[in-house]
Amino acid sequence: MIDFLCASAGGSLYYKGRDMALLHKGMGVSASDWELFLVHLQATLDKFHVPQPEQREVLAFVESTKADIVEK
Fold first, then answer.
1. Which long-range contacts (CB under 8 A, 24 or more apart) does 5-13 make?
2. What is the CATH number of the domain that holds 51?
3. pTM for the structure as a whole
């Protein structure tokens, strides 16, 4: 997970795992699961006093993965 997030954010780590769609296929992640995840993510960003510009970047990146994770 750390490698994926770091690589996706342009960091120096290289992610060698599966893509998000394959990794989450069949897990049954619902839209309500996703929304709860976002609540926890926001709380974590707030707890560590991540500045708003960086919070927007993180949330935008995470949102870009939603279609591959949430089952329809």
1. 8/61, 9/57, 9/61
2. 1.10.490.10
3. 0.76
How many domains is the chain built from? 1
Element (H, E) at 65: none
Q: Counting every residue, how long is the chain?
A: 72
Distances (CA, A) of 65 to 38, 47, 50: 12, 23, 21
Structural domain for 46, as ranges = 2-69
CA distances, 72 to each of 8, 13, 21, 52, 69 (Å): 24, 31, 12, 31, 10
- pLDDT tens digits for range 31-65: 999 999 999 999 999 999 999 998 998 898 889 88
Residue 14 exposure: Cα atoms within 13 Å on the Cβ side: 1
CA distance 11 to 24: 23
